[in-house]
Amino acid sequence: MTQVSNEGNAAANILGNLSIANKQPEQQSNELGQSAFLELMITQMNNQDPLSPQDNTEFIAQLAQFSSVEGLERLNEQFESFNGNFMSNQALQASSLVGRSVAVPTDTTLLMNGGIVAGSVNFEQSSSATEISIYDQSGSLIGNVPLGGRSAGEMVFRWDGQFMEVDGELIDWSTGEEPFPPGEYRFEVNAMVDGEAEQLQTSLGANVNSVTLGNDGSITLNLAGVGAVDISEVTQFN
C-alpha cells in the first residue's frame, strides 16, 4: 500500500520521529521493547487498507498499549537502579567487617600473634565429664583440658596459646612455660552425655580478611584459618 489517511499520516510521522529519538543501540533480545513496538505499529499503519483505515478507537488502544510498554520499561530501569543501590549499600556494610572478628561453626581457626582464640559450645544436656583437646596445624595433640561436669547451656572459652579460661574462670592447666606460636589450631570438645562420649560442635572466632559480594547479592566472608564462609553462618559479631 502507498497511501494512508491524513490522520494516519500525521500519527505515523509523529510516531516515526519519536521512534528515532528513542532509538537505542540494537541488542539481541527475545522481548518486545519500545523500539520494536513502534516499528510494528508504524508498519501496520503504512500497510493498512486505504479504503478501510484503522479507526480512532483501535489507534488509541494501540497508543495505550505503547504507554504500558514504555511504563514497564521505566519501571524495570528504576528497579535496576534500586537493586544497584541496594548492592552498593551491602558492599559498604560488608567492607566494614574487614579486620573484625566473627564467630562461626568450625573446629579450626588461627591464633594471631599476641591474640586470643575465643570459642563457645552449646550443651543441649548436662554432661558428667567434659574435655577440650587442642591440635596443632600438623594434627598433633598438644594437650587436653579437663573441665569436669557441665550443666546444659552455653560454655564460653578463651585460649591465648598457653592458658585456658572457661566461663570467666582460669583453668589450672597450662601447656608449658612458653606459649605456643601463632598458627592454625583445631579444638575438639568431648563430653559424656547419658553415659556416652559425644563430640560437640564448636563455634570459634576468626578474623575477617576480606569480603566477597556475589552478583546475586550474597556476601562471603574470607576468614583467617577458616576460609570462605557465607555471612548467614555467622553466629556472633565480635
From TrEMBL:
<keyword id="KW-0969">Cilium</keyword>
<feature type="domain" description="FlgD/Vpr Ig-like">
    <location>
        <begin position="116"/>
        <end position="162"/>
    </location>
</feature>
<keyword id="KW-0282">Flagellum</keyword>
<protein>
    <recommendedName>
        <fullName>Basal-body rod modification protein FlgD</fullName>
    </recommendedName>
</protein>
<dbReference type="InterPro" id="IPR005648">
    <property type="entry name" value="FlgD"/>
</dbReference>
<dbReference type="Pfam" id="PF13860">
    <property type="entry name" value="FlgD_ig"/>
</dbReference>
<keyword id="KW-1005">Bacterial flagellum biogenesis</keyword>
<dbReference type="InterPro" id="IPR025963">
    <property type="entry name" value="FLgD_Tudor"/>
</dbReference>
<dbReference type="Pfam" id="PF03963">
    <property type="entry name" value="FlgD"/>
</dbReference>
<feature type="domain" description="FlgD Tudor-like">
    <location>
        <begin position="89"/>
        <end position="235"/>
    </location>
</feature>
<comment type="similarity">
    <text>Belongs to the FlgD family.</text>
</comment>
<dbReference type="InterPro" id="IPR025965">
    <property type="entry name" value="FlgD/Vpr_Ig-like"/>
</dbReference>
<keyword id="KW-0966">Cell projection</keyword>
<dbReference type="Pfam" id="PF13861">
    <property type="entry name" value="FLgD_tudor"/>
</dbReference>
<comment type="function">
    <text>Required for flagellar hook formation. May act as a scaffolding protein.</text>
</comment>
